[in-house]
């Protein structure tokens, strides 16, 4: 059975002009002609066209496609293996591209739409996007995560600087209490812990005392948080955790 050029164009989703061009350059010469001299394509021609379009989709120039298809040492199985390898590589590349686009979308949805220079100016060596994948995996399904994303979506560089300065001042205040030997369950330390909880509620998400206590435990359990706080003053992570626990007990008793 054979097919007209119009039928083949419809099958393959190409133009008749494209098929004429492939014929003119010898890339796809129809195996038959009608009595009137019109092109007629057989099943073998359609198979070759399928391979041509596959390689074209991957960006191969027509000359290289012709060399591949006319290689006397390549059998149909070899073509299939080559196409499978090329498809696998293409899929991996597209997956990486999709992941990169997804990451960019997430970064924008978090509201940290700052240039690298602005990020360094506001956050110093700490990159707020560094642990975004981990944060999303651990808390992505929570109301707190969604609320934080919504609130920070409109933050400007000045907003982030104000938030960072306020949190730094609060950390220094708690560190001074620790240095002075003030007990973690003292009124001063518990008041500082309550201010810390209200800061989170105001800047990011509604943080109740139970959630605040969980955060305090994380400051000690996660060595990254412990290192960050203890770099301000040794023992600060545990001290802040104890103050948070005492403050929660004070408000829930």
TrEMBL record:
<dbReference type="Pfam" id="PF13411">
    <property type="entry name" value="MerR_1"/>
</dbReference>
<dbReference type="InterPro" id="IPR047057">
    <property type="entry name" value="MerR_fam"/>
</dbReference>
<dbReference type="InterPro" id="IPR012925">
    <property type="entry name" value="TipAS_dom"/>
</dbReference>
<keyword id="KW-0804">Transcription</keyword>
<dbReference type="InterPro" id="IPR036244">
    <property type="entry name" value="TipA-like_antibiotic-bd"/>
</dbReference>
<keyword id="KW-0238">DNA-binding</keyword>
<dbReference type="Pfam" id="PF07739">
    <property type="entry name" value="TipAS"/>
</dbReference>
<dbReference type="GO" id="GO:0003677">
    <property type="term" value="F:DNA binding"/>
</dbReference>
<dbReference type="InterPro" id="IPR000551">
    <property type="entry name" value="MerR-type_HTH_dom"/>
</dbReference>
<keyword id="KW-0805">Transcription regulation</keyword>
<dbReference type="GO" id="GO:0003700">
    <property type="term" value="F:DNA-binding transcription factor activity"/>
</dbReference>
<protein>
    <submittedName>
        <fullName>Transcriptional regulator</fullName>
    </submittedName>
</protein>
<keyword id="KW-0010">Activator</keyword>
<dbReference type="InterPro" id="IPR009061">
    <property type="entry name" value="DNA-bd_dom_put_sf"/>
</dbReference>
<feature type="domain" description="HTH merR-type">
    <location>
        <begin position="1"/>
        <end position="71"/>
    </location>
</feature>
